[in-house]
Amino acid sequence: MVAGLILGAARPEWAARAWDSTGIDCGRGLSQGDPHNAGSLSSSWGEATHQPDDELDLDEHRAHVEELARQLGYEPVREIPGDARISSEEGRSVEVDADAQGGLIRVDSRGEEGLHRIAAIDPSTGVPAWNWNLDTGRDAAVYEHGDHLILANRIVRGGFFEGDRWTDLLSLDAGTGARQGCQRFEGFPGYGAGSTDAGLVVGTESWNPMGDDEDQEVGERAIQQVTVPELSQGFSRSLPALDHETGDGLDRFRPQPLVTRQGGFFLTYTTSFVGGSGSAFSLGQSGTDFPSGQVPVEAFSMDTGEPLWSYGDPGDRIAFVSGVSGMPGDASGVLVAELGEFEPSSDDPEHGSSAVTLRMLDAQGKQLWEAPAADTGGDFAGSSVDRYLRVLGDVVLVHTAPQVVTALDAATGEELWTIDETADETQPLWLNSAVAVDGKLFLPGTDREYMVDARTGERSGELATAMADAHVEDISAVGEDSLLVTTREYGSVILQRR
Known about the structure:
mainly beta, 6-stranded antiparallel β-sheet
């Protein structure tokens, strides 16, 4: 049967008959493999094979990682290369992503044709606890929901824009990989997915953003709530897809559910916090205007899909920034930013900045506090969504001037500490690359870096240097005694407490 499934996936013209003959009607193209016979995705410390890099020395990199581990009170035990050779892929090199998942590490291996393998490994031994394989060409995403993982397996039959499209949501036990349930939706989850204790929210029925206006009508998008693990259907709502001219050939603008929190999920008709340039400030694509007839942020019940509250007036220059968990009593908040008008620099009218007002809303949409900030994206090329503002735990990091970073208490908006500008520094710190570990925050920049206590701002220069030398991108706890350190050049390293 397995051979028939793989052949059916490889021949779309008769795939329907092949699939129908198996009796499988959900979760096609996904198969649970034997984790012990699927090849290893990690190696003992010092033994991993990496792609050669002329500019970086592997031995030097490992020495920096060992120094970082020493300062943190850990030792490196295993490596997960950013690219590896998987035995089931006949020696082909594939890209590998690793994420902490409770006491295990989830490893997603992706080749040129999509996601091929999802496995969970023990951090100390590298032995897989479970393994799932996807047929070549499947486009899948992974979402976490408590003790479960959801594989969103997107399938096309015919053509991407003309053929049949659907998404199978497969629920797995995160610890064992056992299949819990499956649900099929027409279309793709273009909204992505988000989860609360009440369930999972997905978006379906995508439209073709590359088609001509005269060939399409502005239709609606569907929001569907499902419960986990059975993935039984809950409420379903239709939401408008708006006419929205961007100037870049994309002529539709849709509300996006960007976050789900306890009790509800949030939609925004603006996009994320990004810089701008010249006289045209943008929250997203360059040249985008704000839709004139829609309230910027709306909240809906996770149980019923009914509207709960809205924020802002139509046309307001408001960006949804982040959902925040570090609120009193395990409450959740919604951080939004409102941009003022662009103020060009007197030295160069094409550069400048815009005043920003940050506002924290509670789960009922009530404003808890506001604080001033600054977007300096016009001065710096290549700004990313969270380069100038970042939420890490119960701390909000924000640029209050081009080279000045201020930390705010997420619950109160109170200023905790500030890193001031230096006389010879003209670049901001890279808040999108800030990392939290053991109550401290790492903030990198151009030819400078800081390791500070998250609440007091007390600095640790030696540890900051070790983080920078190891080229750390992220650090996550794996259970109580291990850390997963992701680096920019050499994949991930598993550290174990001494």
